[in-house]
Amino acid sequence: MQTGNWRKGGDERALLAEDRTRAGRRSYEIDYSYALPTALTLLLLVAVLSVSAATLSHVLSMEMPSAAPVAAVAAVAAVADVAAVTAAAETQVVPLRVGSMWPQGAGENKVLNILKDRVGNMTNGRIVMEIQPFGSTMDSQTFAKLTDGRLDGAVIPMYMAGKPPQGYNNVALVAGNGIAGAGHGIEQTTMLGWMFSTEGQATLERIYDHVNYKGFVSASLGSEMLGWCKKEYATYEEFKNATIRAPGGPIGTIYKKIMASPANVLGGGTEQLAGYFLNDQVDCFEWFKPSIDIPLLEGMGFDLKNSSYKNVYAGGLHQNSPFVIMVYSDAALARLRPSDYAVLKAASQASVLELWTQTERESGQILNHIAAGTDGWNGFHIRTTPAGLNRAFKDAALEVLTGMAATDSQFSNFLEQMKALNTDTSAWRSEQLQAAAHLLMALRNMAAYDSTGLLEAQVQLLPAYLRADIVSAI
Q1: What residue ranges do the domains of the chain occupy?
Q2: Residue closest to 207 by CA, chosen among 98, 287, 325
Q3: Where does the pLDDT of residue 80 fall: very low under 50, low under 70, confident under 90, or very high at 90 and above?
Q4: Which pLDDT band, with edges at 50, 70 and 90, does 68 fall under?
Q5: Which carries the bigger pLDDT value, residue 398 or residue 53?
Q6: Cβ pair 64, 46 in contact under 8 A
Q7: Which of 12, 99, 243, 331 could lock onto 132 through a cystine, CB 3.0 to 4.6 A?
Q8: Which residues, in sequence order, are CB contacts of 163 under 8 Å at separation 6+?
Q9: Are strands 284-285 and 244-245 parallel, antiparallel or unpaired?
Q10: Angle between helices 464-473 and 409-444 (to 10 degrees)
Q11: What per-residue confidence (pLDDT) applies to 249?
């Protein structure tokens, strides 16, 4: 990755050119960075020529020097002063106060440190992200802080993007969470490719039309697990009688359709999560995945290793491509150069893969310990997704999402894009599915699977659409 002068590389010039096309739309994207050095150079040249001409006249006439050389020297000094001020501005530190909607200990907050280091390196330390303290619960005041200037930027879940003041934006709600692959089983990598495509970027831009901030996809955390349960469920018919904690919105609606009763589904965020444990209210719960759930719960004073939730279901469809957005207030962006806007965008895109692979590896390491009963995970078991659950969830998801599209034209257009994306990529994904199915059959015949369950756990980490189709096919 290049640091230092951004304008030396072809890619950087392309980024700057792209940003300048937005100048008619955003005042902070007008770039005067080339005009000022050019003007200073011309002024300096005029001043030097004035000195030279006046001096030559003096030599030829052998008269006392006139005021012209003195004025020219003063002009040179003035130019030097302006150049010094410009140089100081080039190195002036720009602080950005950034926070998070998530509480202390949440794995999503890791993206702030990643972005802080990357943006600092890409600007030679000129932009400094000052990370503000985290709260003990989800920060409901995040958007108010962006509006009144207490924060310049914040990490938020993408499903919250475009929320104030008109309520949830359905496109952000599903594009950012990938509920059953938007109903079509599209997995993480394909969804991420769409997000960074011209079509996806245009969709993301429209989400911010009516709010006073702009955002970039900054993290992808991989597929969420089904959850941590007190007992084993072999089939969907058994599982649907459990009481579960699930997210709200369309995900909660889908679960209420497939569980024995809507009363079996408890929603709520971090404020309610600890209470569910302390009051023994749920049979199963999910938040995200092992590498994110464990530190979050520890920060709330709950020790998962010493709990009764000893059955681990790694496979899930309810959020198979969740994205984290780093948003910046319009007021903060107005203080930056156009090239800074390009830096923030590029740094965010580079951070996506870093945090994704980091959390995937950490979760895999935890599964290894669970399977082996080491590192305090004695008595825990990795379980296969209950037979029939994925198919029931996917069917209900498509029903709910289609209903949302009937009353929201923008969301309807988004679902059509997802259908086309599924069609374009299905042939290649089908080949991967066949290979994965043969792999699973081979693993089932290996003695190591029966003794530890680790090999099937690795299969559970396959993309969501592969897990769903394999479970329903075998």
Answers
A1: 20-90, 93-474
A2: 325
A3: very low
A4: low
A5: 398
A6: no
A7: 99
A8: 143, 169, 172, 211
A9: parallel
A10: 60
A11: 83
Q: Is 57 helix (H, G, I), strand (E, B) or coil?
A: helix
- CA-CA distance, 471 to 469, in Å (whole number)? 6
Q: In the chain, how long is the greatest CA-to-CA distance?
A: 109
Residue 116: pLDDT above 60?
A: yes
Radius of gyration of the chain (CA): 28
Query: In terms of Cα–Cα distance, which of 158, 160, 167, 174 is closest to 253?
Result: 174
**Under 8 Å between Cβ of 304 and 228:** yes
Tokens 């950087």 correspond to what residue? 12
Q: Are 374 and 458 in contact (CB under 8 A)?
A: no
Q: Is it true that domain 93-474 has CATH number 3.10.180.10?
A: no
Structure token digits, residue 383:
């379980």
Cβ contact 179:397 at 8 Å: yes
Q: How far is CA 422 from the centre of its chain?
A: 22
pLDDT computed for residue 456 by the predictor: 52
The token pair that represents 336 in the structure block: 């930056």
Say how many C-beta atoms besides its own lie within 10 A of residue 127's C-beta. 20
Q: What is the mean pLDDT of residues 409-415?
A: 90
Q: Which two tokens mark 106?
A: 């949440």
Place of tokens 């903060």: 332
Helix axes 290-299, 338-372, angle to 10 degrees: 90
pLDDT at 21: 43
Cα–Cα distances in angstroms (integers) from residue 362 to residues 105, 255, 291, 303, 422, in the given order: 15, 28, 6, 18, 30
Q: Which of 84-88, 162-166, 422-426 has the highest mean pLDDT?
A: 422-426
Helix (H) or strand (E) holding 6: none
Q: Distance (Å, rounded) from C-alpha 336 to C-alpha 347?
A: 15
Q: Which of 52-61, 160-169, 322-331, 339-348 has the lowest mean pLDDT?
A: 52-61
Nearest to 250 by CA among 194, 297, 182, 201: 182
How many angstroms separate the CA atoms of 245 and 225, rounded? Answer: 13
